[in-house]
Each structure stands twice: as C-alpha cells, then as structure tokens.
Request: fold
Amino acid sequence: MTQLESFASVNGRSLLREIYRELRYERQLGALEALAVCWRICTKEQELIRLTRRDVVVLHPLGILSGTKLWMEEVVNRFFYSVINAFVYAGAALLLLVVGLNRTGVIKAPSVVVAGIIIESLLLLLLFLVMYFTPPEEPDGKGQTPDGSVATEELLREIGEIGRDYAAMAVQLESIAESLTDLVERQDGMVHAMRESVNAAVNAVAPNPELMTSMQSTSVALNRFAEAVDALSKSMHIIEHEEVERLVRIELERLLSRRILESND
Reply:
C-alpha cells in the first residue's frame, strides 16, 4: 500500500492522469463515467483500490472546490480540450449557416437563430472554463539539477582536480630541479679540488712514499667518485623516466575522462 499526501502534488497529478488512462483505455469505461470517477477521486475518495487497480491511500482529500479545480486542470483540460474546441467550431459553423439561411429567407424562424446563438454562447463559456483551468507547468524533478548541469559540474570538478595534480607535479619538479642544481654545484667543487690535488702531485719535485700513498688514495677516491657519479646519473635517468610515465598516465586519464563525458552527453 502506498500513501499519497495529496493529489495537488506533482506525483499526485501524474497519478491522476494515469488513473484516467486506466479507466478510459484499460477498463474501457465511457468518457462521462471516467470523468465522474476521476471527480470523485479528486474531491473525496481516500482509498483508490475501491475504484481503480492501484493500492494508494490519499491522506488529505482536496474537497469539492479544490478537487474540482484539480479535476478541471488535469482531466478535463488535458483530455477533453480538443473535443470541446471542436464542438465550439462546429457550433460556430452551424450558427453561421442558420443566420445565412435566415437572412436569405430560406428559414423564417427567428427562434432557431436565437437557439443557435444561445448554444454557441454556452459552448464558448465551456471553452472559457476549460482554458481558464489550464494546468500549471511541472518543474524538472524535485529541485534537482538537470542532466546538462550535472555533467557540467562534474566536468568542472574533474578539470579542477587535474589542475591541482598539475600544480602538485610542478612543485615536485621544481624541488627536483633545485636538488639537481645543488648536486651539480657540489660535483663541480669536488672535481676542481681533485684537479688541484693532482696538479700539486704532478708538480712535486721528488715524490716520496707519502706522496705515492696519497696519490693511490686519491686514485681510489676518484674511482669511487666516478662510480658515485655513474650511480647518480642512473638514478637521475630513472627519476626522469618515472616522471615522464606519471605525466603520460595523467594525460591519458584526462583524455579518457573527456571521452566518457562526451559519450554520456
């Protein structure tokens, strides 16, 4: 069992239209009988299972005035406006014919002309009532944002996330560049100091055992330094390769996100 607050809500109006279609087309009720049942549902009926196939309980019936107004808007106007409009045109055509025949003397009965005018006036009054109770436009859902706006917000959020990723990546690259610059400066200082040591050893007048030991130590230190420089160069290449892979992965994610969004649109 489903509970409905009132037929005046958006869901209630939609349910009322579905009930009329059920009565008129599924249960094959006549137009007047379907109108009568819908009017009863709009004004005072609470348990719809008595009149329809829907197990719905209306908590707050609208009453005679509000229920009739809703009945005119959602049933009469939506489903009988074209029929009433057609009767108005037919009455106008008959009225013109009667007036023309009366003016030409074919029919000499003023009462027929008066009756035609009265009938056309009543039809126009009925059309006025139906047009007066034109149903209001329904909103796009229960306050929700349309799909285009949702897609736009999601796209802007993803663009913001990509921008933050790029900013963080730029900061990391600047930090790596500063570290490499400092390392290169230290390496230049060490090479310059070793070159001066080698020149001093070569320019020695008479080498002695201590000088030979110092030169051997210097040679070992140079070998170690060369190995350290080689290891540092490999590490720099590895870091550069990983950074490039990270940039490529981020770019692919951004392209895939854009393709998915475009396909959804």
